[in-house]
Amino acid sequence: MDYAERLENVAVIGAAGKMGSGIVLLLAMEMADVGLKPGNGSRHRVLHAVDVSHQALGGLVKYLRKQVQRAAEKRIVALRTIYADRADLVDNGDIVRQYVNDVLDVVRPTTTLEVAAEANIIFEAAPEDLGLKLKLFARTATDNPAGPWVFTNTSSIPIQEIDEKARLGGRVMGFHFYNPPAVQKLVELIRSRTTTDEVAAFAEALCKNLRKIVVPSADRAGFIGNGHFMRDLLHAVEEAARLRAGMPFVEAVYCVNRVSQDFLVRPMGIFQLVDYVGLDVCQCILAVMNPRLPGENLHSPLIDRLLEQGVRGGQNHDGSQKDGFLQYQQGKPSGIYDPDATRYVAFTEFQAACDARLGPLPEPGLPWKVAVRDPARETLLAQFFGALRSMDTAGAELARRYGARSRDIGLKLVSDEVARNAHDVNQVLLTGFFHAYGPINEFFA
Amino acid sequence: MNKLRRNVYMTAGYNTVSMGTGRKEFHPKKSRPGLEDYIREAGRGVLQQVGGAGNIDEGVIGNFMAARFNSQGNLAALIPAIDEGLQWKPCTRVEGACCSGALALTAGIKSVLAETADVVLAIGVEVQNTVKAIYGADILATAGWSRERKAGHAYFFPGKFSDRAGAYYEKYGRDRTRKAMARWYRNAIENARLCPTAQEYHNTSADLDAVALAEPDPRSFVDHLNVFDCSKVSDGASAIAIASADGLKRAGIPTSAAVEIVGIGQVEADLTCPPSDPTRLETTRRAVQCALESAGITVDRLATVETHDCFTIAGILAVEAIGLADPGKGPDFVLDGQTARAGHVPFNTTGGLIGWGHPTGATGVHQAVTIWEQLTGRADRNQIEIPTDRPYALSVNMGGDDKTLVALVYRRG
Fold first, then answer.
1. Which of B242, B246, B178 is nearest to B212 (CA)?
2. Chain A residues with CB inside 8 Å of B150's CB?
């Protein structure tokens, strides 16, 4: 079965979720593109989009229609060539409509999990819960004589363990998209000891056609991305606890969040990132990593406590941010949650005092947005962090500690052989987390 | 064209803002003025200067594709919406793609020459930001032959002029031509920055040459042009009064506040035929020649030119078609600074299509308004010096790929 044949019958489990919907979008377009290549038109292509609710699947179709149209508009120059033989398609508008139809024709939204058992390939994008994933595989892939290949979007569970527990016989591989999959360039590919060469070669080829940047990760819980993110997050929690000795909880969280964004030139503060990912998701990932990586105590009682109080983060159906560590008004942070008082405290009550305590940013300032767009980014960063090194303020001190810890985490991923080298670690943070620089750098050496 | 048998003047010009990307107040997702709002603003701008609607005998409106951009036909009937004093007056809508504006001018001129009107209100309008650029490209492509659309580029007209640019690069050299195109862009933006109604009025790019020299990307656009080589998508209207001497008198406007139309060249080429030489604008050349001949002047009497630079390469080809430079020498003429505002023959002194904007049906009228402003000393910060021994100006408005052409020669009244 070659690449095109393999893509004739595909299933995505968890298709209407945050990750699943993006994966469906990318695969449906790739399948339609393969079908539009000369000679491939006669073959039927099906993408089963499996999820638990019709309502969510309805939302998926709407999302797909909008995104495919946008993609078609962007690719109009190429699409006119692809549809050159269709005399009935003359205007750009005709061609965009046809492409949207061709892509949506591939997708079969369904709540019947078992249809995935017919697929050549199953992409699994269910919540980060090994028990759940195994149940899903048991009804679709385990002991399936047709031998479907399984690509799991797990961001933390070792693939070898999935393979063994689901009895997949090497037909499984980690295919970790970043959120949102249609936008983020990075894919972490994770081969287990038993993953077959054929499966791995297909994954590479698919990534190439999706124009993704591939970083291979060793099959160690958390891989590279969460290997860094979770430890980074726990450092932030520890720093907040340390600051707590001299200030209220909300102020400590504010200070660490602000330093990890503005002083470290990152796209968002660490607690905002946790909210974006979802506190529940972070808890699941830590629960996967902690027992599998003994001796590190990868666990946060604070996150457990907030979740007990119903503070979850994540996004609403319309993509807007839910409250988590931080409260949001029109997408912008406006307050911090106080678990003792079980309420949010508005920035206005403490922001000015905290900013004064942290001290000024290094001069000249360097907002993340500027840093990522400027071709002279390296020079600007060196200048900014050079100034930061010589500053004797609480903010600069926190930032130095934070940058140094982030660097240590990166180096440990290399020495533990999770990543092949420093470049891979940096690549994951640059392309998966949109950082302006990699954690393994000279700024915090 | 025979020599005009009656003096024809233009006066009381008015431009709305050319709205679109680049203007600070433009937001693609917010509601904006519609077709009738632009027509009303421009029309009233003229009426105020000519003593009201009672002094208007007739209305002409030039527009390309409101039927598709705005789902609106029968535009002549929007002229009475400008002012109730225009109700029941004869009105006509004309269309000739991007030359629709100048066709409104020639239609008005002919009414004055025929002595059926002494004051004609000529309006040009287009509101194009109603659709995304890729769908706008479909609509604008109707200025070409429909049978060529299927094989044409997604961005049909950029594709046509990219082909012309490619042919020109091959014949005369790429580097110098690209540099001249970049200079053309710089001149356009620098002029637009002085004109509050220009679409590029708010442009603050520090290094315009560098911006304009970005390499074309055929994967997302066309082979030989980048987006800075192209005029933008614009909403806007322009209007002007076309009058006989009696008409001016009736409106209380001295001839010194008007420009006289002394030469007309209106030329049509076969839409179904490709250009015989893509490095030349043959129809433009013929139209300009007609206009100059009917004015009885040679090109060296021109103080300023408004030309149809829908693309930077079209500007350079027009310099040659007008006869200011030999074939292949247009880039030198531009790079020597001759077309800049301090040059020998300043071109497009309020920014032209690249800088002021290109509300397609309005462009021809906008050109006339700019020339009226320049020749009567009303151009404010855009004012250039008009030498006494060269009191003439030329406008060149083009529809399609060098198909529908109107060239007019003006002199201060």
1. B178
2. 87, 90
Determine contact: A91 vs chain B, CB below 8 A.
yes
pLDDT at residue A307, rounded to an integer: 97
- pLDDT at res. A236: 98
Q: What is the pLDDT of residue B2?
A: 62
Mean pLDDT of B57-73: 98
Q: Give chain A's residues under pLDDT 70.
A: none
Say which CATH architecture domain B8-132+233-257 belongs to: 3-Layer(aba) Sandwich (3.40)
- Closest residue of B to A75, CA-based? B220
**Dist CA B176 CA B332 (whole Å):** 8
Name the residue among B314, B126, B295 with its Cα closest to residue B225.
B314
Sheet of strand B404-412: strand arrangement: B91-94, B58-62, B119-127, B235-243, B8-15, B259-268, B404-412, B392-399, B302-306
pLDDT in tens, B84-134: 999 999 999 999 999 999 999 999 999 999 999 999 999 999 999 999 999
Enclosing domain of residue A279 = 225-432
CB B176 within 8 A of CB B335: yes
CATH classification at residue A87: 3.40.50.720
Give pLDDT tens digits for A375-408: 899 999 999 999 999 999 999 999 999 999 999 9
- Alpha helix (H) residue ranges in B270-311: 282-295
* Alpha-carbon span A47 to B261, nearest angstrom: 67
The enclosing H or E element of A95 equals helix A92-106
Distance CA B346, CA B397 (A): 17
CATH topology of domain B153-229+261-412: Peroxisomal Thiolase; Chain A, domain 1 (3.40.47)
Q: Which pLDDT belongs to residue A349?
A: 96
Give, for A345, the enclosing helix (H) or strand (E): strand A343-346
* b/e sequence B206-239, b meaning 16+ C-beta within 10 Å: eebeebbeeebeeeebbebbbbbbbbbbbbbbbb
- Record the tokens describing residue A227, joined without a space: 């290997």
AA letter at A400: R
Of B138, B141, B220, the CB nearest to A77: B220
Distance between CA atoms of B408 and A153, rounded to whole angstroms?
67
Rounded to the nearest angstrom, the minimum Cα separation between A84 and chain B is: 8
Q: Are the C-beta atoms of B321 and B288 separated by less than 8 Å?
A: yes
SS3 B16: coil
Q: What is the CATH number of the domain that holds A298?
A: 1.10.1040.10
Is residue B154 less than 8 Å (CB to CB) from chain A? yes
Distance, in Å, from the CA atom of B248 to the CA atom of B242, rounded to the nearest integer, reads: 9
Q: What average pLDDT does range B350-374 have in this prediction?
A: 98
Helix locations, A107-187, DSSP H: 130-138, 159-166
pLDDT band at B395 (very low <50, low <70, confident <90, very high): very high
For residues B46 and B230, give the distance between their C-alpha atoms in angstroms, rounded to a whole number. 30
Determine whether the interchain pair A90/B150 forms a contact, defined as Cβ–Cβ distance below 8 Å: yes
Is A87 touching B (CB cutoff 8 A)? yes
The CB density around residue B192, as the number of other CB atoms within 10 Å, is 28
- What tokens does A437 get? 């620089």
The answer, yes or no, to whether residue B1 has pLDDT greater than 60, is no
Q: Are residues A203 and A141 located together in one domain of the fold? A: yes
| % of residues, chain B, pLDDT over 70 | 100
> How far separated are the first and last CA of chain A, in Å rounded?
50
Q: Six-digit token pair at B173?
A: 């050299």
* Structure tokens belonging to residue B72: 């609106």
Span A184-243, pLDDT tens digits: 999 999 999 999 999 999 999 999 999 999 999 999 999 999 999 999 999 999 999 999
- What ipTM was reported for this prediction? 0.92
Listed residue (B325, B317, B304, B319) closest to B382, CA to CA: B304
